[in-house]
Amino acid sequence: MILKLFIEPVQQFKKTMAEIAHTSVCYSHAIHNADLMPKELRDEVYHKLRHLSGQLYADMELIPLFPYPVLRLFFQLPQRTQIYKTAQHLIAVGNWMRSSSQHKFDNIVGEMQDACDSLGLYTHPNDRIPDEHLQRFRR
């Protein structure tokens, strides 16, 4: 019962987190060079990010007692607000990839870094662009 109620849903959630990390690396060439990529690849990345955003919510809802801090600490899960922010950031990356704004690159990089940070996914310091170097729209 514990396996089906807690372990498997948490494992699925963690797989989705891993898929987000994998997607950010696997598609980094397309994400960071959206203007140079074919429309088909941009659309593929856009749909993949939206799918992962929705999957993150779905997996979270499968975990019973998710809001309780003891359960989150035991399984090392992010807070609900962090998951919500991550989902928003992933959708924003896809949307910015289709934008014609002069601040497109800065916002894509910033949103992707924020998505990883919200979930607690590791990004090596050499792979980060400091916020002070990004000309982003602040919300």
Write the layout of secondary structure elements.
Blueprint: H1 2-26, H2 28-32, H3 39-62, H4 69-75, H5 80-97, H6 104-119
Question: How would you describe this structure to a colleague?
Answer:
With 139 residues, the chain is an all-alpha fold. It has a single domain, classed as Four Helix Bundle (Hemerythrin (Met), subunit A), CATH 1.20.120. Helices cover 68% and strands 0% of the residues. It has 6 helices and no strands. Helix 3 packs antiparallel against helix 5 and helix 5 packs antiparallel against helix 6. The chain starts with a helix and ends in a 20-residue tail after the last helix. The mean pLDDT is 91.
Protein traits:
single chain, 139 residues, mainly alpha, 68% helix
What's the number of extended β-strand segments?
Answer: 0
Structural class: mainly alpha
Number of domains: 1
Order of helices and strands: HHHHHH
**Poorly predicted ranges:** none
The CATH topology turns out to be Four Helix Bundle (Hemerythrin (Met), subunit A)
Q: Which CATH class applies here?
A: Mainly Alpha
CA-atom Rg in angstroms: 16 Å
- The percentage of residues in β strands lies in under 5%
> How many helix segments?
6
* Overall spatial form: elongated
Helix content: 55-70%
CATH architecture: Up-down Bundle
Span from first to last CA? 44 Å
State the major sheet.
Answer: none
Can you give the mean pLDDT? 91
